[in-house]
Specification:
mainly alpha; 2 domains; 2 strands; about 60% helix; Protein RSI-1; GASA; signal
Amino acid sequence: MTGRPYASLLLLVSLFLLITFSDIAEATKLRPLDCKPKCTYRCSATSHKKPCLFFCLRCCSKCLCVPPGTQGNKQVCPCYNNWKNKGRPMCP
């Protein structure tokens, strides 16, 4: 009977991790109406705001994800990170 408490603990920890990671996965999925504010912030530090917003909104509408911050962090959104146009990154 010594294995039973460990099995219960393992089940409890597994459920906790499942809930935690499902919240993280849900946080990266945006609704299309969330794209504009996310892209406005994403493009706030560039001097080329119009093209940045255009491509960010296009990428967000396809991928439903915008990386955090004003640059970098693209690994958070694989679709956003991997979308290329003529071999160059499509998304800012």
